[in-house]
Here is the input.
Amino acid sequence: MAETGAAPAPPPPARLLPVAVLLWFAGVYLRIPILVAPPLAPFISDELALSQALTGALTTLPILMLAVGSIPGSLSIARLGPRNTLALALVIMVIGSAGRGLVPDTLTLMVASAVMGLGVSMMQPALPALLPRWLEPHHLALGTAIYMNGMLMGEFIGAGITLPVLMPLLDNSWRATLLVWSLPALLVAAALFLPKRDRSRPVRNVAWLPDWKNPLTLRIGLLLGLSGSLFFGLNAYMGNLLQYQGQFERLPDALFWYNLAQVFASLTMLKMARYWVGRPGVIATLASLAILGAIVAVLSSGWWSIVSATLMSLVAGMLLILLVAIPPLVVSSAETGRLSAGTFLVGYTVAFTVPMLGGVLADWTGDARHALMVMIAYALMVLPLAFTLDLQRKKGQPES
Here is the structure.
């Protein structure tokens, strides 16, 4: 049943804090369920005797589901409303994520991982679709920055705290660790119903399939693929690149700073979102800098390579936030979920496919740099789209 009720008067700023907290925690769960898999993978593999491919699938399968599940998310938004969809998606995510800690064998582990990825993918379009219903127009950019800050913090928290902090507290049990990371999301799902406001009237029988006639669906999606393939790809092949460069011993430091840069990207956007969101020139500049950073990381050596990769991660994180913030600015609240779902479908399909193709080429040539060169080639190919974005705002939207 879709959410109903006329829009009440906007609350004072102090009452926006609970909404901001909810958005932040929902953003955290866009990434923690996915990013806890790499540190836990060796323990899961040892107990369940996973192959190399299946061990990698613990991370890559949910990323693929981020693309596949965007359409069910859009359908749910059209039928149930964004708040109900976000709550449902959190419950589905918990079932899959916590279920991984209870599985008896490999098959059920992969099924649970796919269910978890489906839940996360449904959350993606629900969050931007919820913003116009909870926030005034001039707060939309800040709202995006808040939940994206939660998402990028979730990347660092999931990857950085799991092994040194959480597992020792749980007798080094990977099963208990998955349960402890997952179950609190049910509290977030319940708390979503506390705000008693919906600033946008529901629209009956709205379309939910991606609007491929809207050029922004493909353009934003392909640019999301630029950001995602460079970030996920360089993250995945960092060890191979450093080994090729003869500095494999620096891998722990390189990965730490590489992922921490995403946190700084989100903090920067909390400050600059009001000025940068919806500015095509800023998007084009950041996309160009991300490509430059990736090129220098591949062609240089020593600390220059690691620093360039870290700067690329920083810029790619800011670019991601700017792109995700576009739909609620340029279309009506009824169309936001649809546009977001289409862009995520394209973006995460690219972010999964391009690094995979790069890995196939690297295996064939024996040169780890070729995997990254495939991603750079894709980025250069779609870069002109960033210079030709038409982000005309919907009627009534402020410029900053």
In short: The two ends are 35 Å apart (CA to CA).
